[in-house]
Predict the 3D structure of the following.
Amino acid sequence: MILDDNNQPIISGTTHPTRQDSTSTTSPPPPYESTGASAPLISDEKRHHEEPPAAFSRVSALSTQALTPFSPMTVLVEGSGRALDKGFSLSLPLSSEATHPFKQRDITDADWTRFMQDLRDRTAFPNSQKNSTFIIPIALGLGPGAFFISNAIKAKIRRKKLAHAIALINTWNQNFFGPRQVEIILMRGTRALTQSKSNYAKTQDVSQNNHSAESLSSSDSSSPSSPPDNESKGGCCGQPKIPMKLVVVAL
């Protein structure tokens, strides 16, 4: 008689399961159970930037011959030195014309709001960047120098945000405002930061150059301790704060 490992007789034609070694660590993987979490989605902000505005695809049936010119409209960018995103107002630019120029050029309130909101989004400081500008220098053990490093990081981020705003304005001018014989110019003082086809920015540059020449000649006879006329108090490290503005002009 033949016995198996458990001292049981083996009957011909039947098999018994082999005893599993208790020391074995091999086991089949557990069955997959869904956690119920949905797949990651693209953030609303990212999708908002990636999708072109609906206004870009709206064809305007304007007759350029029937359009009348209008005086430039100015929108001051409040707080442009530190919080650029908070300076873009969603309200329509004020006009001295009896009928707002936008009505004649197929530019709705929603179009302007979308444009300005895009500018806000592109120039806003994410919370992660706000915190890292001060936490990183402290973590590196820079001590009192962390303050200056933090300001340098913030300045670099602001320049990057401003570059995004300039590119966005140029895109809107090319795809929406330009075909409606309107141009938006972002200016710092009297210098245009965005591309411009109008003569407005050129005349401002000429005026500024003439003013600078007059200031230079008058400063020769003034006291060495007196600051130039175009400087304003409160700038960092003695640098003047130059305000920015959006100028809406007719082409």
